[in-house]
């Protein structure tokens, strides 16, 4: 069930009505309803993978309790590694087995050996990377004595499977979400309205920006040889807005939906395209994953404690793993590597924490220097996105070669060029609104709040109308494949 | 909570009104600006129908004819298209409508409101449809009707962005089929077990054919039902008895031109239903000669067609 589908339009109000309808009864019942709704939501994709989700949940719940009750460090370690091993094992089998098998066969054939390795013909269970990381953080936190294990199976299952975040995050932490699940929630009018507004903004980003940009990015990326350098560069920009609209749009809908149920989720995006350097970009893009890697990989590896060399090594590791997390393809690994290279100067010069504040805070416009920094950061991000989007490394390198050809100064030309002017207008609108709202939680939160109610409502209706117009294409979210 | 529900309902009602208004306005703009004006040299004779005439009539070889057939287009959409064409082209004198064996079958209903074709056909013609025509789609496929509203609006919005309202290039034309799969299809179908499907009539499609005829009569335009050549082994010909019955019962007053026996080799068919470009060329030239020989003004047209086909066959043998 997609957030941008007719099905969800019926599902959400129904769950909302039942949820608040039983508010006066008990919290347990509310949580049970949310869990049942989450399992139904997940089963709409493929009910068979529900067993995997339930098994993974049960495993972490059980090992969590066993770790707590373990009488010796050895037993605690045993349960810890059992959970980690099975979780990572599932991820490895479903997501990475074919990649390793094929890469190994290629390597062997490079040495003149013929290897016919068995590959799996299975589809990737939707959201497996996300719920596995939920479970991993929970188990690691118990092992490190940061949290107590959750004894209520319904509450724990809801923490793993809560439908707004189940298939594409944000990747939650037990310390943040579980206390909210266990606490009685009261309906808050202001928060609920804010949730609806965030859903509206997320839908706009997904349906109007991402799905439209996808049309042009697909045309250009699928046939790069037929396009000029300038068109290819524009294709990369379209993809940059596609992936931003798609993923941050999804996150906005998830956060907004959750707010309707009185639960706050972790912020996942913080206007990343207004970043002044790549380190700032990574503090603002897919925040829940970046912080997950920081807390569970970077810091355990030594973080920035062991001098510059250690920092460089750990940064490379974290970006390579992050690239690999996105998918079993060399393109993602190179994408991670490129980002590590981009961030490296600031790591070595220790300037990676220079831009911690909000750009041009309290001002209407950035300075020339800030504007140049933003454009440059966006430019190198787009360059890396080419590797993320391309089907393989050859295609990515050819694409880059195509950009830097003598046709770079030709006027861009591609199928559907005239229709793209509408999309460009909406991209411009997105930039303006997000710029004006960059000091708030999401675009649109305070947009036009100083204007009359009429003006604000008129603008919301304008967004609704365009979401409706473009909703016919109903495309899946990119991050579902991860 | 109450305040929230009231507010949501209010937003919902406002949104529905805004969306309905958008659908209406975009349809209205497209309908008013749409150009169906055909070049005056070819407006006299129009050919309408589905993929069979689309592939059979190479109108560059038939003087004064314009092939406006479109694959998988039912009489329902033919009618809406013709209505718009006649509004803007006063020079049309004759309309040739394909009347083939599959066009009476119940499967045609899917061509009107079935999910597979709805997003293409309905979204193309929606701006020109009456309330009752929309209602027909809605009553037979509610979900499809709803799902297609944004597709229709997007299409209309794109016409506005591109300022492109020329529909003459969007509503059909001769389709040059280059494939020739007849032999392989026959080889396969000989081996396969044939199960003869029970014949069921598409009342809606027939109803709209009658509407096309009425529309032409109202505009003082001569109508001809025409059957283009088909491969004799096409299974759709199994309903021939029902086909002839409907032809006699419902369309006895309409001129009927049957070319089903026109001699063509397997190599001149794209498959069992469609002529490829070789077949189209051969048939279109033959058809053009018949028109030049004043076929349309003869009393017994079918007799002339049959004798010309026999003559043509004799010449081929020689």
Q: How would you describe what is shown here?
A:
The complex is a heterodimer of chains A (482) and B (318). Chain A has 482 residues and is mainly α. Chain A has helices spanning 6-21, 27-43, 48-69, 73-110, 128-143, 153-161, 163-166, 174-182, 189-222, 229-260, 278-284, 287-298, 307-326, 330-348, 368-389, 393-403, 420-436, 453-470. Chain A has two domains: 6-187, no CATH class; 190-276 and 355-481, no CATH class. Helices cover 67% and strands 0% of the residues of chain A. The longest helix of chain B has 32 residues, at 2-33. The relative contact order of chain B is 0.15. In chain B, strand 4 (222-227), helix 10 (240-250) and strand 5 (255-258) form a beta-alpha-beta unit. Chain B is elongated, with a radius of gyration of 22 Å. Chain B is an alpha/beta fold and 318 residues long. Chain B has helices spanning 2-33, 51-56, 75-88, 108-113, 115-125, 131-140, 142-162, 182-191, 203-218, 240-250, 277-292, 301-317, and strands spanning 45-48, 65-67, 94-98, 222-227, 255-258. Chain B is built from twelve helices and five strands. The chains are: A mainly alpha (482), B alpha/beta (318).
